[in-house]
Sequence to fold (269 residues):
Amino acid sequence: MPDIIYELQDYRFLSWTKTRKSSGTAGSFLKAYDDTGDRKKYYKLSDYDPLKGIVGHECVNEIIVGRLLNLWQIPHLEYKLIHSLVIIDDKEYDTWLCESEDYKKKDEMKLPLEDYYLINRQDGETPLDFCIRMGWTEYVYEMLLIDYLVQNRDRHGANIEVLRSRKERSIRLAPLFDQGLSLVCRCHSIEELESFDVMEDRPVQAFIGTGSTLENVRLVPKKFIGSLPPLKRVDLLEVVSGVEEIIGKPFTDKIFSMIWERWSSLGNI
Fold:
């Protein structure tokens, strides 16, 4: 199934609500759902401004990061990017939205990792140490690596979830989700894009590790990174394929450069 639907779809029936703002992030991120079909579907929009409309491209970022995760077969929430008509505050917009389905099994309950950690941690145990003790080492290393490559600004303690099943007596971490606040998400003009340094180590929210993706990727053993198939330029061209007509060539080229330069830098970190 294609992950981008270019033909304009009518989603004016959706009712949009604001989600809570994460500390340190600006703008409003609207979400909606549709439970009229066999499976409940969830929708979200890019950064929305009541005066300027939908000004961000976080939904496009979700597709790009998802494709990057697919290269290494890292479990993540599958998003579909859809060209859509929506209505917000009685005004119609021609925009792009993300569609996804629930990643929980029917009997699973979810809890933010931050809350689960606070309940079950040992004295002096950091979130990283806790995850390693729980057997989630590979998950954490994959997350820290991908968050460095795309400069994910928003991996707070509620953007990682613990899924528990009483019936199966199982516990697992949810597939990676909410990677939209990444890449060049803070660039809304060509001028901002041109001045954007793709290698700058900007402050981020990160429940595991520190507020620096550079420092966090240093927690990942080189042996682990070396075990992954190397990222090739031809692979990365596929990762950004089809988004140029949505966000334009300058933004697409900058995103390509960001991922490629950060990947190429790993050997020197």
